[in-house]
Please model this.
Amino acid sequence: MSEPLGELEDLPQAYRDELKQAGVAPLWPMMRNVLPHGAPQPVTQAGYWNYDALRPLLLKAGELTPVEKAERRVLVLSDPGRGTGAMQATASIYLGMQLLLPGESAPAHRHTPSAVRIIVEGTGGYSVVDSERLPMEEGDLVLTPSGEWHDHGHDGNEPVVWLDALDLPVFVQLEGSYAVEGDLQPQRNRPDASEVEYKAAGLAPTRRPGHRARRFPMLRYPWTGTEAALRQMSAYGGDEIAELDYVNPETGEDILPTLGFTAMMFGAGQSQKPPLRSSSCAFHVIKGHGRTEVDGQVIDWGPKDTFTAPVFAAISHQAESEAFVIRIHDRPLQDKLGYYEERAR
Amino acid sequence: MSEPLGELEDLPQAYRDELKQAGVAPLWPMMRNVLPHGAPQPVTQAGYWNYDALRPLLLKAGELTPVEKAERRVLVLSDPGRGTGAMQATASIYLGMQLLLPGESAPAHRHTPSAVRIIVEGTGGYSVVDSERLPMEEGDLVLTPSGEWHDHGHDGNEPVVWLDALDLPVFVQLEGSYAVEGDLQPQRNRPDASEVEYKAAGLAPTRRPGHRARRFPMLRYPWTGTEAALRQMSAYGGDEIAELDYVNPETGEDILPTLGFTAMMFGAGQSQKPPLRSSSCAFHVIKGHGRTEVDGQVIDWGPKDTFTAPVFAAISHQAESEAFVIRIHDRPLQDKLGYYEERAR
Amino acid sequence: MSEPLGELEDLPQAYRDELKQAGVAPLWPMMRNVLPHGAPQPVTQAGYWNYDALRPLLLKAGELTPVEKAERRVLVLSDPGRGTGAMQATASIYLGMQLLLPGESAPAHRHTPSAVRIIVEGTGGYSVVDSERLPMEEGDLVLTPSGEWHDHGHDGNEPVVWLDALDLPVFVQLEGSYAVEGDLQPQRNRPDASEVEYKAAGLAPTRRPGHRARRFPMLRYPWTGTEAALRQMSAYGGDEIAELDYVNPETGEDILPTLGFTAMMFGAGQSQKPPLRSSSCAFHVIKGHGRTEVDGQVIDWGPKDTFTAPVFAAISHQAESEAFVIRIHDRPLQDKLGYYEERAR
Amino acid sequence: MSEPLGELEDLPQAYRDELKQAGVAPLWPMMRNVLPHGAPQPVTQAGYWNYDALRPLLLKAGELTPVEKAERRVLVLSDPGRGTGAMQATASIYLGMQLLLPGESAPAHRHTPSAVRIIVEGTGGYSVVDSERLPMEEGDLVLTPSGEWHDHGHDGNEPVVWLDALDLPVFVQLEGSYAVEGDLQPQRNRPDASEVEYKAAGLAPTRRPGHRARRFPMLRYPWTGTEAALRQMSAYGGDEIAELDYVNPETGEDILPTLGFTAMMFGAGQSQKPPLRSSSCAFHVIKGHGRTEVDGQVIDWGPKDTFTAPVFAAISHQAESEAFVIRIHDRPLQDKLGYYEERAR
Ligand SMILES: [Fe+2]
Ligand SMILES: [Fe+2]
Ligand SMILES: [Fe+2]
Ligand SMILES: [Fe+2]
Model:
């Protein structure tokens, strides 16, 4: 167990040439790289994006690049461990800040990766998913799941900004990522399902034989409902902060196949020290101020800021004021693969 | 196929005696009884119970029988097909009207059958299920599922009445019905889960590894939420009446293993002619007036009335005024057995 | 808790008349009947049917009643607790001994209840289920599940006898039992799925998108495979007898929605004292001799005999010789209803 | 839709510097890379490894590197698209040829990725998984699933070689891959579950309440059973080749969370032109000779050879002689992510 493994240099050059010729490579010199002892050794590093710094850059992108030349006008939040330009924030999570200006529209497409948008600022923006019109209000979660047509529009007067969270890195790595483009969709003239079919917990449209529920029946999770629910949890939660998972109301499953979303509420001064988790994650602040340590790195955060943590990071949150934060994570994927894990600190 | 089958009388008496001696009986004379052609031949008949008629009888039961001598002071709604005294309203559904007077309590027990209570009148009543205190307000559904301790109490000043719906007939027939008695339970000092954990559709307490959701996480479905959701459905439902199934918010499954509950809203003058269903069912009127035909029998109903229909009944509803009705049915059981069926009329 | 409940006679006759008039009945005088203390009080009693006694009666039925006058020429094993004539052996299990003579056929039908046939004697019999021809050899289990067309035929020279096990009582009680008749089916010219698609454990026809597995993909469980598997289990099972559940090879679920089947092998002299189970059950002896006590009643059994036990029966088996027995039980139904239970003795 | 998107060079250098400073990158210049039109653009290329060429290299590794210096003495089959040295054969599949010499043992460890070994040559090798001893015979599949302790040993006299198939690339990309080392395990003195508990299709150890089946109950799939089953399928399969999926006998699910295994049998001269699949795959030849085209590249294969194909490859097989091939693919993972797809050619 303790003896060091052989290295590539231990092998005769002629043999190494033969291996190369045959298209094979010895495992043992690479063994500890691909299977490190005891825990993964992530490349990913904690990242922090201050919204006040990001906003002018995003507005400038609006001046420099018309939406027609961008399709989606997004600044991608690059994992510091991989360097700026990386199309991912952690091993599995892509984050991007998207701008839509009044009167603009982002054309319809559908793709294998799934997205959730968290609305950051502005009113009048909307998404259309399979012809369902989804208003985008601050703090709302709006889903555009794998394979569903979606476009975006803007009826308001001020810039609309949202944070895109996608499982794009997983699909890119699996060589499964692609998109199909189409025309803007017609919009059904009625409110979205969160306002009609799924207006109350524990109620669902009556089941008819053969008519299966849509795979993603609820595409918008209005912030007003989430905040009210968190406040109620918090009132009866004792010392623990309030935490609610966003779920599919027809199945109780996570809202996307790979990514999970958890709404958190901190009372002023409240702190949380979660266990070490095998999931990587991102945090987006809806309201409030606080400080978070990620593997010793201190992050002071305020409204609309975003920050990330790699797998098994030691995370400690401390809220200054009452604060609402959404945690994005890949536990659903890890559950499906059977290896999600929490370790005591 | 068309030849009539042999009858018992076709067999020699000596042979019939031998069969009896051996503890066996020929199937063929009974074949069409147990396997009728094309559709079941239910014993169950449509029933109707006017609340105004029932109420004084129930109050008199309160005078005649102290709760200590009754445990549960209930008048059972007997299927007319089986005759008064039958402990069932349809083949699978038991219905009883229960009275609790101010200051009374019904002692704790738990049993294999499951119950849902629909609150008919009165305020101040409550149920305690596994130490969770569940207020009972008009129109609320309150669950006491299989195996969970439950008792009832009353802090108010007027009689409290509720309709009990149980799958008791199934358990009695399966020789699986029994109860265990216990003491009144302590009550946790906080609102029930419908007020805390399941306050909004699409949100659930954050999942922790190893901590599984309770099998019946939501034990109370407040009427206020149901009515609001129905109104919203109705506003966008076009010609169809609004219908919502009560579901487990953690799984989307029906709220009981055998019985399903569906809340219906009729606009004034709206009608519904559902397909013929293999499920038997009961209807309880929360508010409003209307007329329903069940296999040709006309039932004029008003607030707090209850009526039933056997399997494959031809049912036509016609609301006079805006009306809210809860349908109780055994589709969940039939789904599990794999034979639930709807037929066009 | 200990005070006796009120009785019907405690109520004034006038009030009782009013209740009857209103179609309602007080619960409390019936309370302990429908919800007895601590455990069910089954009507079902243990039964025992000696095959040597049954066989001549069955053959005489063959002489007295042509198959055209019987459709299915069956002697039903009536629960002694309900008396001869009862179309059930326990609360949930129907058992019948069926005879098919050379050259006869039993016409096609399909029905809501499901059946498993255990072949008792004879060769040349076969069932056709949805056009799949299923040979019937001694000890085989042959399924005719809910809703699937089935007929029976006989190409051999000696009488064929099998034991039918159905969930008929459940469907009759639920008023869900009915049949549809049809013509004899064409037979696909190839062996059944147990000889082709499901020839080895852990292998299944390759999955194609959209092509779902049949709900009941394996309709015949050949005895030769079962005996070989039991012998292997027994060789490595230590003191415990070998017990294998019959399962759906595509899902691992029980082979019928309500009934489960377990093959048991006893070494000579081996005994078993299972826990008290909430399921009722029947035992059919494939080979061997032994003695079983059911709630104190002693049953000495030999090849092809059948015996039963009610819910929560105290059962003790003692094999004289090496013995193979099939246990039929309703645990699958009780699992679905959520109340299956085992108690230590 | 058709207008070309803006490029990085279209943006002023000062702005690009600011973006870099802020840790963000514009999406649109990268948009078509991460979301190509219509289908993925895989880096992976078809690979082919002739066993006759590989074998001497593997034996030489045995001479050059003692197992103590290698832990696992494996030559990794590197995707030609990524170049020799790549620790993966496709986007999701790792393949390695492993050598164990007589008397050697590979020490115990467990890790998050899962493996299946397909035995290529030699007798006397065995794996121990959670103390269950699994003999390794030619053509057998032996599982060492995620999280289960495993070591390997060799009681024979000739080299033993097997092909390792792992989902390692997925775990590496997710930063979830790690291992824990331990001592050689004790071995239970009885045959593995394929010889005892899962000896026949449609039978499983009797279910006891609370005792859940192991997540991976069957760890060895003996080739003899697979070949016999394929021959039977083939005899009744008509023009289609015989294809059987390896499944968990307790659930019918694929044998690993991410990877699927399908055994294929070609009659002499038989061909197959499967649809374009979104899964990537590898083929390992158990017996026989044939020719396969992958995206126009011709591969002539014989016994023990291995070859691969990227996602959506156009694959055409033509067997010269009767041939048995195992297909390894990532459909289970794609099913879980909800995007597995087949396209007509
Ligand atoms: Fe998109
Ligand atoms: Fe009760
Ligand atoms: Fe039948
Ligand atoms: Fe390993």
Observations:
- Residues 48-199+218-343 of chain D form a domain with the Jelly Rolls fold (CATH 2.60.120.10).
- The CA atoms of residues 298 and 309 of chain D lie 12 Å apart.
- The longest strand of chain D covers residues 94-100.
- Chain D has one domain: 48-199+218-343.
